[in-house]
Fold:
Amino acid sequence: MRHGRAESFAAEDHLRRLTEKGAREAQDAGEWLATHELHPTHAYVSSVARAQDTWAGLAAGSRSRVEPVYDDALYTAGPENAMDILRSVPDEAEVVLYVGHNPTAASLAHLLDDGDPDPASFRAMSAGFPTSAMAVLDVRVPWAELDAATGRLVRFYPGHR
Structure:
């Protein structure tokens, strides 16, 4: 998931918060998860304010009680580094939510897809990865073995354009 719409400026980039629209986006995304019975069992969230705000809105919308892992490395992580972090997910994790930044969020989703995506989801994701967008991938390997093409894109939440 890409974080929600954030304010343009703050004293430093880490401190940029979600706008009112961004907060609504995050809550809407959480409601979408709940509607599709995608209840996160684990969450890995960039440590910056806008990502933490996104998680808070998403958790409220989905009624999730998961304690997220806030990770400084997700702020600057490229797709390979993000995948390394996700390899540390406990084996028992069923629904893992990553809240990060673009272009990494979009690149990671494309990298993980096995090349046989749900066609409508792939078209929607290929049209862009706006704020609060989420790619849902069915990962069929143990988390420690997560790699390129080890998931299948099954749904895409287009966020808000």
The chain has one domain: 13-157. The radius of gyration is 14 Å. The first strand starts at residue 42 and ends at 46. The mean pLDDT is 96.
